[in-house]
Amino acid sequence: MAILNMKRIEILGLQKDRKNIIEFLQRQGSVQLDEMNEESGHFTSIPTASTVTQLDKYGSMVDSAVEVLDKYAPGKGGMLDSFAYRKEMSTTEFLEKSKGVDETLGKCQKINALYKKIQDSRVEIARAETAIDQVRPWESLDIPSSFKGTADTCAFIGTIAEPLDREGVLTKIVEVDPEAQGEVEIVSSDKNQTCLVALCHKDNAKTFEQALRTAGFVSVSDATKHPPKVRIERMEKKIEDCNAQIAEAEEAIKGYGDSRDDIAFLRDYLTIRADKYKVLDKVSVDDSVFVLTGYVPEIKADDLKKKLENHFDIAVDLKDVDNTSDDVPVAVLNNTMGKTMESVTNMYAFPSHKDIDPSFIMTIFYYFLFGLMLGDAGYGLIMIILCLFVKKKYKPEPNKRALVNYGLGCGISTTFWGAMQNSWFGDLPKWIANNLKSNDPTDFLSVHHLYWFDPLQHTTRFLLLCFLIGILHLILANCVNLYKMSKQGMMFEGLVETVPIILILIGVIPLVNSFIGGGALAEIAWTRPIDNMIKAASPVLNTMAIIGAIGVVLGPVIIRIKQKSSFGKVAAGFGGGLYGLYNTASGYLGDILSYARLLALGLCTGVIASVVNQLGATPGGGQWFIFIPIFIIGHTINLGINLIGAYVHTNRLQYVEFFGKFYEGGGKKFDPLSAQSQTFVFKEEN
Question: Which of 197, 479, 537, 590 is deepest in the core (most CB within 10 A)?
Fold first, then answer.
């Protein structure tokens, strides 16, 4: 809602208080510190890179331990527990708990060592299984595969890469050399190879071996000193031992599950310390004093100065800065509604000092558009119930509360537009009524005309609504642009640039109503006055559009005359105005047509929801035990897909059609030194 003014803060303190002051500023979380000025005279900085590297190394070790614990001893919390308010901790409590970090770090080392033992054991198991697979075809061999023969014989143990029986092997040998004489025993055979033992007299060894190898024989590669069955038994015993070691290590890891909170604190402790030492590198120091400079929001500056002077022997100086400079960081302050949109704005671009923070301005239209795209009251009620449950049970912190409020706003809008279209999980009420042979529980809405239209039956009416919303959205964007230019001292230029466009947009409303709507507003009792009003005002609105078009053409001319430009530049301005009218007409026509995506997504949600109901009703003739699982699975998928679609396309309309008319962004986000903790927050210090 507002971009905060910043002040320059300069701190001069005693060297002995340097770390304590940094830690105090970190707990306050309201000062962005500058890098050390290299032209600081006799001041220097104390290198801290090695300390930061070591802390980061410890942090990685802790992260690994947490991953191991999550795998073998997962915590009890669910996904929604991440919204819970963090525990408050005083400085004294933090220091007391910090005394145990060395012990906790040792536990993390043990957890990682146990996990490494598990991994090593699994590698050994894989190797043993591979060895068994290699030896398994030789299991029936009752002699070592390294056996070479007796005093009078030579033995050849190996394989031929094809399936053969004894006769087949002997035939291949004879085909190679009829003089080769020997005996063959098949150990095993499959489609890939034949394992065999061949024997011959030593006098015939060379001839027999040459014929055997020519036939495709290959000696066994990993010969055993014992019969293969012995190796298999040894490998199986090794696998058994490794599995026992794995089970033992897993149980030991599970025993550290009670240390999860201490490990989480250690991770935060290391993060805070690493951030502190990164800042210490920015501090200008000499033998007795140090200097810190940075930025602080003006609304916090005086209070911070008072706290610093109360806690330390310190000199604090606050100076005004040029808040239009690009070098000054930007901080924003929004009310509850505006905070829900900050993340949407920041994903596009952080505002600069020249901008107006659009977070609050776009809130109403954002929810309006989101609800129209999702457009099912049943889905909206689910979102409302879930968000209210999270707020009630977990009482989330401001940043997470903004996310919950965002979901709540989207849910309320979705419920409203779903009710307007009589969509409750698609056509679920009608299906229930047909199945129970009773009246549709939503019939009273139709009878009393409390819902406006059925998107499938009144598509034109839906499209009219989309275009009218788009026109209003674009008018608001131009109004914001006018306000922004007036703040920059360009009121006249703003009027010339935006008012003609606003007049054109207002002037095309009757055209949209008559040609696209086809009298859609006149069909409903409670919107008929709006239709009558538009028709009555049509002459005036048409005139406004003409005046706006003339204004677009003459705008550049008027500005050049005000600037006392030459006649040639004024004449060129007229040509530029004609070209500007063409760009305005084509550009805004495209912008308005872009809002047809509201129709596409709105129809998509309702149609798929109705199809899910039909699928559930068809197989069993409306039997509940068939319908319910199909209903739950189908609507869950439909809700998930269309939630993403509504989110993406609502953001797109904000970024392109809305922001494109006034918002530049590109500001340097205010990034204060703070205690980045996931498990606790520091209590407020006086």
Answer: 197
Gap between the Cα atoms of 229 and 185, Å rounded: 18
Strands laid side by side in the 217-219 sheet: 183-189, 194-201, 153-160, 217-219
Cα 31 to chain centroid, rounded: 28
- pTM for this predicted structure: 0.77
Phi, psi of 196, deg, nearest 5: -145, 165
Structure-token pair, residue 120: 């090593």
* Helices 597-617 & 363-374 angle (0-180, nearest 10): 40
Tell me the per-residue pLDDT of 328-347, one tens digit each, with 9 for 90 and over.
888 888 888 888 888 888 88
Quick one: tokens of 472?
A: 């209003």
SS3 21: helix
Which domains are present in the chain? Answer: 2-102+265-320 (no CATH), 145-223 (3.30.70.2750)
Q: What is the pLDDT of residues 566-594, one digit of tens each?
A: 666 656 666 666 766 777 778 888 888 88
Q: Which amino acid is at 443?
A: D
Give 414's contacts (C-beta < 8 A, 6+ positions apart).
370, 371, 374, 375, 376, 377, 379, 380, 383
CA distance 179 to 174: 7
CA 234 – CA 304 distance, rounded (Å): 72
Q: What is the tens place of the pLDDT at every residue in 401-455?
A: 888 899 999 999 999 888 888 888 887 777 766 665 555 444 444 433 445 567 7
Dig out the tokens for 555 from the structure: 């705008």
Q: How many CA atoms lie within 13 A of 399 on its CB side?
A: 4
Contact (CB, 8 A) for 499 and 479: no
Length of the chain: 686
Coil, strand, or helix at residue 157? strand
